[in-house]
Amino acid sequence: MPELSKKNFIEIEVGDNDYICRVAYDDWEKANGLMGVDDLGDNEGMIFVYDEPQEEISFWMKDTPIDLDIVFICPCFKVISVHTGIANTTDPIVENNVQFVLEVKANSGIKEGDEVEFDGLEEYLEKRLDRCDSFTEDKEYIEEEKDKIKTLLKVLDPDGEVQLTLKGNERIFSRANTKVLIRQAKKADKLKTDSAYKRLGKSIFKYMRIQDENGEEYVEPKK
Asked: What's the whole-model pTM score?
């Protein structure tokens, strides 16, 4: 296969013809198709795979330097129609109720009604979806870690030195207020009365409100 990658391909039998085909499954692969491929063997091609039957589908030959047979295949694995795509033309080639489209070298001899058999398509798609799931999980993990970094809060002293690093949504109170909260927390834990817990809660929300209403002050961190 001079131009096509040998990594991602399946075998397809159409009537009396056998092909080794690269799979176009995602949007980028479908948009590019065989653009720029100027050497295609008689038993080589590309198969466009759709998850669901397409009520109407359109192909063209933009930036495709060789003539192709564009073979539209229905969900029941039979050829609906075969159209010759002329190199580098942009006239749309339209068909209905299509789930697969096969592109091979022109004058293939494939005809309407030919039965189509795929060898390895299900296995290929399973492996591909597994890779996509793995990639998505990795991407989600990376985004989560990036979000954690974004939400880090650095507590600086008046000279700009980092004294403490907090994760997002955490609060830090002044030493005086912290002493009050510790004292009230110890008392509430000892007495275990509603009034003691309420007093502690009121103090916490009071100090949070004061923080939210304070004006912004900035200290430049040291490089």
From this structure: 0.59
